[in-house]
Amino acid sequence: METKIGSMEDRLPSLNRVSDARPVLPAGFRASAVHCGIRVRKSKLDLGLIVADRAYPAAALFTSNQLLGAHVVVGRESLAKSGGKVRALLVNSGNANCSTGEEGIEDNRVVQRALAELVGCAPEEVLFMSTGVIGARLPGERILEALPGLVNLANERGLGDFATAIMTTDLVPKVRTLAVEDKAGPPFRVTGVAKGSGMIHPNMATMLAYVLTDGPADDHPREMLKRIADRSFHRLTVDGDTSPNDTFLLWSSQHAEAATHPKSRASWSDSHDDVLEHAVLEVSQELCRCIAADGEGATRLVTVQVHGAPGEREAAEVARTIATSPLTKTAVHGRDPNWGRILAAAGRSGIRFDPNQARVWIGEADVFSSGRPHPENEPAAHLHLLNNHEVVLGIDLGVGSARAEAWTCDFSADYVRINADYRS
Q1: Average model confidence (pLDDT) for the chain?
Q2: Active site includes 206?
Q3: Is the domain defined by 301-420 classed in CATH 3.30.70.3270?
């Protein structure tokens, strides 16, 4: 899906979504995918590549889990050594290359060196990432054999295959694009691709999320990523589990900046940061919604709204607590307007408020306010849960003016089935 941002008088663009069946990468990037044999099904793409014309600026946030996948260890080292420059991103699914000891780290480096030789760059300018089952040795030979064909296949229309190749229990690929038109400079594109369906409770990002742009690189990209993660991936949960491979990458080819007329470049650089950050935030939040909607066994996308908080941080904490509550999520699955579970989850969030001054809603139905329930409104709340794929749960804490949202999904018996059978 592509979203267009028009000229921005106030620097905060509005969105106009249009469909894009074959997503186009920002200028300077090409992508491809193949089946190399990691996944049992021969028709399943399991190795994806995004390669740039040359090494471009990039920044990444990685998992806060103490258990680290090999790609987190090698990726941090590589970005530090390259000065934040990346030429190629390789991702496999079906195997997390995690808890595989020094052998797993060396497996990552062997593939990294081989791909670097093929594309003609330093090894540290290649990031090789993995997702899948923890504890299994990576089939490195299969990956090495697939690399030449993968590089030859790379093209500007290959992002759809890449998005499919990085999926594990995902049911659908997740790609969102923003076309930015700004009077201060030339148009540019921001494209995000992600995978994630289970083990989603990010403390930095999501399972895997990559945002590419041909717009200008931010002067402090990692700080920008932290701000964006706090307002997007940190507010996403499916099941309360944080992956050891979580990664959020921002990568800019700067093609639009290179195309800027020299006389206008200075004025554009003074103003582009807010526009770029807003665009990356919009794409990241859209990816969050995609992941929540595709949560393992999910039948409902749930947006949790928190109003009336003393600050945005507090509002986000309450929203995330409600979104993580198994009781709230199972009530949504049963289409039960059980507002007490929403209020109780907010009450244990650690954020102080007077429950008697709070207001709770489901859809547009006020189900609790002024210290008392409103059972007469529960039928409307039930119909909201019954008839809509995207549902809203909300609470006003009554202690301030700050707001925040979080995204999750319902809990179904299918979630248990999927995860009980994950390795068997």
Answers
A1: 88
A2: yes
A3: no
